[in-house]
Amino acid sequence: MRPTLLVDVDGPLNPYAAKPHRRPAGYETHRLLTPRWEAAERRRLTEWGLPNKRMKPLRVWLNPDHGPALDALPFDLVWATTWEEEANAYVAPVLGLPELPFIAWSSPRPVPDNGVFWKTPEIVTWAKGRAFAWIDDDITEADRTWVKEHHDGPALLHRVDPRYGLALDDFAALTAWATTLN
Ligand SMILES: [Mg+2]
User: Fold this and answer.
1) 54 alpha carbon to ligand 1 midpoint, in Å?
2) Pairing of the two strands 132-136 and 4-7
3) How far away, in angstroms, is 10 Cα from ligand 1 center?
4) How many angstroms is it from 86 CA to the middle of ligand 1?
5) What is the top-level taxon of the source organism (predicted)?
């Protein structure tokens, strides 16, 4: 059975931490008004007392090479992003990816201790001992430790720098890890 690759959007696919006016090479700009973004913007504007101000779309940088490169990996792809189903509606088509399963996070969001990222326990629960790799910009050593202690199966927690997004090295590391499972 192929391992699962859990894919975060903001950070690995959308290098949001790159310098604002210098789009990284290979990326294209998309301005999206997704229902989740609109709801969040509306809340923000209302909090600031500007309920009628025009809403700005979310600027997202995406690299069309990432879709085929992800698809070619020896993994089954699953979204692990706060975009949830919107990753299928807005991100997958731009990258040429098919509709993918996604993790539906608990609401309200859990608050783990010891610097563990909130997604980590949710992912381990979702994985049920299955082998998985996970790409995310928020992974730290605390998450690796937590997964070692709570996940009974192989796991690779691979941090991607949100200034650059997924690069060739990351794809190589994922492939190398999947090869060790055989
Ligand atoms: Mg992220």
Assistant:
1) 27
2) parallel
3) 4
4) 15
5) Bacteria
